[in-house]
Specification:
A ten-stranded mixed beta sheet has the order 8-5-4-1-2-3-6-7-9-10, with no helix packed on it. Strand 2 and strand 3 form a beta hairpin. It contains no helices and ten strands. The chain is mainly β.
Length: 192
Amino acid sequence: QVGVGVRIMGYFESRSQLNFAVQDRRLDYNAVKAHVTPRTAPTIGINTKPTSELDLALAYRSHISFPFRIDVDARVEGLTRVLTEVTGQAIYTPHELAAGFNWRPGTSTQLTGDLIASLWSLSPDPSAIFKANVIPEGSSMVREPAPLAPVNLSPRDTLGLRLGADIDAGWSQLRAGYGFLPTPLPSPTAEK
């Protein structure tokens, strides 16, 4: 059996124009626009049944995140104009490859397990980037901000393991499981 699917998230984008009239104590919204564009990531899985008691499966899930961009053009009447831009990504999940089994050695026993490789080393910079430009009234000069150094957390690829057992004793059902899901981030170090 083969299964194909898709995960859907969005790209959030917002643009705003604001006018502040300090003397009149007034704030006008000239334009506020926001929209979310769908983004997709494929998922594929293969399941085989070598015997009537055993299922084996492989699955691949592509990476996906929720990128965003927020632009604000704010004018303070008679004084200045401030252009701001915030960009970044949230809710990132990495490429994953999983292999699993479901074994039923008897009518009342079921054992399951899976091994998941997560490719965290390919993850993007997790920090949001904030840029601001202040333009005095009457000036048309827009300075480009200095380039920012990316934040590199040095994430490592991980290998997770999950095991489970389900035993039906007739009068009671026993379930137990174990999961080992390591962190992709290195151990913190303290400098003296």
